Amino acid sequence: MRVPLIAGNWKMNGSLALVEQFGQAFGEANLSSSMEIAILPPSPYLAAAQTAFEKTPLRLGAQTVNPEPSGAYTGEVSASMLSEFGVHYVLAGHSERRSLYHEDDKAVLVRVQAVLNEGLTPILCVGETLAERDEGRTEATVLSQVKTVFDMLNAQQRQHVVIAYEPVWAIGTGRTATPEQAQTVHAAIRAYLVEYDKQMASTLRLLYGGSMKRENAAELLAQPDIDGGLIGGASLKVDDFLAICQSVG
Ligand code: PEP
Predict the structure, then answer these.
(1) Pair 124, 108: CB distance under 8 Å
(2) How far apart are CA 124 and CA 157, in angstroms?
(3) SS3 sequence, the chain?
(4) Is 21 exposed, middle or buried (0-12, 13-18, 19+ CB in 10 A)?
(5) What domains are there in the chain, each with its CATH number?
(6) Whole-angstrom Cα distance, residue 14 to residue 91?
(7) Protein residue whose Cα sits closest to atom 1 of ligand 1
(8) Which of the following is catalytic: 103, 132, 166, 186?
(9) CA dist., res. 204 & res. 104, Å (int)
(10) Nearest CA to ligand 1 atom 8
């Protein structure tokens, strides 16, 4: 049984007022208790969100982490610091981190390891560019991104990872993968995970991300291998994000 997870990645957006608004709305909302919901605000808002979300089903997540435990890394935040603020999930390998901050597969791996070592849950983001899809290299690209990380984890660590399939061409573009396109890649990832461990493959959660919104969420989330969503733009409006959470079947 895979517990659905809806995670909202605010990126470099939001405000203290938005944190309060989410705390208020989700404190009053009537949501299924058999799902998990997380908000990943920019790190300066974590302390306020920890308080504002206390009496809500919202868990906290972070958008990135430095793999080192501490030291002279100006501007960076460690996994233990995130943990002190009640963070549960941490993104690794988001396509914006890969492209804008040049985080390669090795950089993604050490972040996943740092998050796991702290007892937190990494959300490993994978996805192909439009050129890779057009060249018929979608599965090869995505599975190689999974392999780089999973080969270096032990069996126990692998069970604690969440994978988000986010086609790069669908992130922030308004262009969503069709439910069939997304399901095909999710099924390929799950089939690949069987090579490590059949039990882990059947329980590991696979999220879809890429212009998921209230209008298309139900259809995407109804696919057999889609266990939730990683939401960017639509997580900034409380009504939209609530509607996505409510469309979990
Ligand atoms: C994301 O940033 O992970 C994302 C999926 O963004 P959007 O929903 O805006 O496409």
Answers:
(1) yes
(2) 13
(3) CCCCEEEEECCCCCCHHHHHHHHHHHHHCCCCCCCEEEEECCHHHHHHHHHHCCCCCEEEEECCCECCCCCCCCCCCEHHHHHHCCEEEEEECCHHHHHHCCCCHHHHHHHHHHHHHCCCEEEEEECCCHHHHHCCCHHHHHHHHHHHHHCCCCHHHHCCCEEEECCHHHCCCCCCCCHHHHHHHHHHHHHHHHCCCHHHHHHCCEEEECCCCCCCHHHHHCCCCCCEEEECHHHCCHHHHHHHHHCCC
(4) middle
(5) 5-64+84-109+120-246 (3.20.20.70)
(6) 18
(7) 232
(8) 166
(9) 23
(10) 232
Residue with token string 């060249």: 135
Are 53 and 60 in contact by the 8 Å Cβ rule? The answer is: yes
**What is the Å distance from ligand 1's center to 28 Cα?**
26
Q: Which atom of ligand 1 is nearest to the CA of 229?
A: 5
Residue 144: per-residue pLDDT: 98
Taking only the tens place, the pLDDT of each residue in 55-77 is 999 999 999 999 999 999 999 99
Q: What is the pLDDT of residues 188-212, one digit of tens each?
A: 999 999 999 999 999 999 999 999 9
CA 147 to centroid of ligand 1, rounded, Å: 23
